[in-house]
Write a structure and sequence with these properties.
Elements: H1 22-39, H2 86-97, H3 120-129, H4 132-141, H5 144-159, H6 182-188, E1 193-198, H7 207-216, E2 222-225, H8 237-246, E3 251-256, H9 262-275, E4 279-283, H10 305-317, E5 334-339, H11 346-359, E6 363-368, H12 372-384, E7 392-397, H13 403-410, H14 419-427, H15 431-446, E8 452-457, H16 466-472
Parallel strand pairs: 1-2, 1-8, 2-3, 3-4, 4-5, 5-6, 6-7, 7-8
Helix pairs in contact: 3-5, 9-10, 11-12, 14-15
Bound molecules: iron/sulfur cluster.
Iron/sulfur cluster binds at residues 60-62, 64, 68-69, 71-72, 77-79, 85-87.
């Protein structure tokens, strides 16, 4: 176990072959031993320890470089419960060190060429580039604030390559900006919006998707299609989104970073935009360990959801690919991300949501809301960080059909059903009907909370209940 970090090390990262000199190999061995012992360093070759409170985040089984996933808890990592969530530890230590502001900088995905190599050569080369001894001497003689700024800038330039240039600033769509989708126009105009999720079928036939689209059409403003939820293959979200468009209902295409490389994401979004799909929800995705075996590589994650948001926004607003090539025609996108009210703590999640919104997320659809007190606390934290003023939050609502379903739901990472609600279901003569009444009560309270701009139904295979919920909750669409 590393001396200063709390978890044990995960599997080794992929190391591409390098024809390194003896000196480079020697330095790499020294770095691996010293930083490994101190910080849990996994030799990603793209060091960002300064930003992560000196704990190597590459211990995370998802390889996340921008904060905790929606399944993180103070107790443990949801992928491997025998160890802590390394991102929780990073946030905790950053709070103690007073460096949480550093966690807002959007950090780049790995330059895989560098994985396994030592970082000192980069530091030395950059030191020479910026003036070597002369520059160091000047910085030492400068005022303390100037010296700190020069120090930060020096390492910023090393960890943020030209092709990324991530920062902690808020990036809004260029002004003037015409909404690109019906959902965007509603949310921007401050009208309460309703979306619902359809789980794509476990089949190649389109009938089921079309039937559900036609069922939901009069009751929702847009329909989400999940992307291999629970790491289980289904019909692609792109294909389902196109079927929805062809049948007159606007889609929200979900993309899980888990199943894509940076190249695949860019290609898929260009294709989606060309087909008329405008709303994209960027997710990191469940870990493959949640899916059925046999498992493929579980240790290689190319990008995370925040990096995906950053890439898509720049494709849209700056018209260039990640590799800086110019895009002749950028995609038209309304970019969204997930909100996780019940992961880690309100404070930490609010920080992570702020980072998503700064990177370019224009709307957040949250995980399932049952515990209203915690949801309110989460919204209050978002408000404190100015997130509510810059994005539209849609609360995730899932009706519970039975006591068994409630217990199963409680096992889902990032979902919490208060014991009092489970008790109500257990004592009810008709738990299904009781579950619907509970759902209506939650909607009634949620829709009045400041900052909530819409409801997002996730009926998990029970899409047929959405029309009743919309009607009884008084959420009918004006066009219906
Ligand atoms: S809970 Fe999520 S963020 Fe935390 S270590 Fe596990 S996979 Fe990574």
């Amino acid at each position: 176990m590393p001396g200063f970090t709390p978890g044990r090390r995960w599997q080794p990262a992929y190391y591409p072959f390098h024809n390194d000199s003896i000196m480079e190999r020697f330095l790499a061995a020294v770095e691996r031993t010293s930083k490994g012992l101190l910080f849990g360093c996994r030799m990603c070759g793209n060091c960002m320890l300064q930003e992560t409170a000196f704990i190597c985040s590459m211990e995370c089984p998802k390889g996340l470089r921008n904060g905790p996933c929606g399944g993180s808890t103070p107790e443990h990592c949801y992928v491997d419960e025998s160890r802590p969530c390394i991102w929780y530890k990073i946030y905790e230590r950053a709070e103690k060190l007073g460096t949480t502001h550093k966690l807002l900088e959007v950090l780049p995905p790995l330059d895989w060429d560098k994985v396994g190599t030592e970082i000192w050569k980069d530091v030395l080369n950059h030191w020479n580039e910026v003036g070597g001894l002369d520059a160091t001497w000047r910085a030492l003689k400068a005022a303390p604030e100037e010296r700190d700024r020069a120090w930060e800038q020096f390492f910023y330039e090393i960890r943020q390559p030209d092709w990324w240039q991530g920062d902690a600033k808020a990036h809004l769509p260029p002004q003037p900006h015409e909404p690109v989708s019906h959902l965007e126009s509603l949310l921007v105009a401050g009208q309460f919006a309703v979306t619902a999720e359809i789980a794509p079928p476990l089949a190649a036939a389109p009938d089921d998707v079309i039937k559900k689209v036609n069922l939901l059409k009069p009751f929702v403003d847009a329909v989400n299609f999940t992307d291999n939820p629970s790491a289980t293959p289904r019909m692609s979200s792109l294909a389902c989104s196109l079927l929805a468009l062809q049948n007159g209902l606007e889609p929200v295409m979900q993309i899980a970073a888990r199943d894509r490389t940076r190249m695949g994401v860019q290609a898929e979004v260009l294709g989606a935009s060309a087909l008329g799909i405008r709303n994209i929800l960027c997710l990191t995705g469940d870990h493959p360990r949640l899916g059925p075996p046999p498992h493929g590589r579980m240790d290689v994650w190319d990008i995370d959801s925040i990096q995906m948001v950053w890439i898509l926004r720049r494709m849209r607003d700056d018209c260039h690919f990640l590799d800086e090539r110019e895009l002749k025609c950028g995609p038209s996108l309304f970019i969204g991300a997930a909100g996780s009210p019940y992961a880690s703590t309100d404070r930490f999640q609010a920080l992570r949501e702020e980072k998503k919104v700064n990177a370019g997320a224009q709307f957040l659809q949250t995980n399932l809301v049952y515990d209203l007190d915690r949801f309110e606390a989460y919204l209050a934290e978002l408000d404190k960080r100015g997130v509510l003023a810059r994005t539209s939050v849609m609360a995730g609502i899932t009706p519970v059909r039975s006591v068994k379903a409630a217990h199963a739901m409680n096992e889902v990472p990032g979902v919490t059903i208060p014991p009092a609600l489970i008790k109500r279901l257990e004592n009810a003569s008709d738990p299904k009907e009781e579950g619907l009444q509970i759902t209506l009560e939650i909607i009634e309270r949620v829709k009045r909370l400041p900052g909530v701009k819409g409801i997002h139904f996730m009926a998990v295979g029970w899409e047929s209940i959405v029309p009743r919920l919309v009607t009884e909750a008084g959420l009918q669409r004006p066009s219906a």
